[in-house]
Design brief:
137 residues; alpha+beta; two-stranded antiparallel ribbon; 6 strands; 15% helix
Length: 137
């Protein structure tokens, strides 16, 4: 990290650069996502964090995009950098859940549920039964 003059430098050149570059260790794969705005569509950590757009590299995670109809079915980076105030929700478990919030909330996937115009919410599914009167049977 440190700015455009630090992009894609080897560790030694980075650490010894006159441009105030900083080396970040990464012992795993660089599965991550670049965020910080519409222009932060970089696919590698060095280009992301040395861009003139002040982007940040972060951990990628499975999940879905929420925030309204314009956020439906977006990938994590596109979601986080969307101009529509979309939010990424990580889900390290399975998508086993239920969409609730009213009659029209019959979606079977979390992104479609939480980006619907009906203000539905995705929640954890659990075993149980329906109660509340004869119309609930």
């Amino acid at each position: 990290t440190g700015g455009p003059n630090c992009a894609n430098k080897a560790q030694g050149k980075c650490m010894n650069s006159p441009y105030n570059c900083k080396w970040k260790c990464n012992y795993g794969k660089h599965e991550g996502v670049c965020s910080g705005g519409y222009n932060c569509d970089y696919t590698d950590p060095s280009s992301c964090e040395t861009s003139v757009y002040k982007c940040q590299w972060g951990q990628a995670c499975p999940g879905w995009c929420t925030g309204g109809p314009n956020c439906a079915n977006k990938a994590q980076g596109k979601c986080m950098n969307s101009p529509y105030n979309c939010k990424w929700k990580c889900n390290y478990g399975k998508h086993e859940g239920v969409c609730s919030g009213g009659y029209n909330c019959d979606y079977t996937d979390p992104s479609s549920c939480e980006t619907s115009v009906y203000k539905c919410q995705w929640g954890q599914a659990c075993p149980g039964w329906c109660t509340g009167g004869p119309n609930c049977a």
